[in-house]
Amino acid sequence: MTGVPVxxxxxxxxxxxxxxxxDGISLTVRAGEHWALLGPNGAGKSTLLGFCGAVTFPxxxxxxxxxxxxxxxxxxxxxxSIGHVNPRHPLRSxxxxxxVVLTGITATIDTPMRWSPTxxxxxxxxxxxxxxxxxxKAEELWPTLSQGERGRTLIARALISGPRVxxxxxxxxxxxxxxxxxxxxTIDTLDQTHPEVASILVTHHLEELPTTTTHALxxxxxxxxxxxxxxxxxxxxxxxxxxxxxxxxxxxxxRWSARAR
Length: 261
Prior knowledge:
alpha/beta; six-stranded mixed β-sheet
């Protein structure tokens, strides 16, 4: 399955209240690829992620997710094969780590009434919890977790349903330096534990990109600035253009950094 297109955007546009948010962006993500979606605030990153997550319809253009074209498929069915990691997860209940991970099976925020996990569900949850280094936290309650532990729990929740695509929406939001590095290390390990799962990580901080990033889409004002292999896209010239500011981009040891000139 490696190399099979899992997300295809063809000249998509999106208008909201008469304003063009996305203007003719195309993107193809293949199985096993790890994309960074980069750009300044207001560039249109969240809207694009909505297309990739089978949540938002474009105004014009074509979207295919997992080989299915929008307008010809039930989007709710597609979403079951897409893992979405959102650090602003709106959980209100005091669920344990294991219970939060299990909600990935039901695609709900809380545990549904009259639903109980099977022994197989529990075994799968515990295996993923162990993979993400949370075995000692399985019975810990959500409100007591650090932001870093919550981030890893949400990745486990996204993976339990066996997704073909993983969407990470600014996963380092609210993390201190140590927690961010732990989370990025966790994301990097997915390249070995789930090699066929494609991913798209949204951020506007180059320091938040994992070393396993293979490709990048850099956008500004709803337009594509550059797209392709990450080393070709994440450059001083391209980033300076996208952010409309002179920025020096550096790459060292598999990680990027940026400083204003």
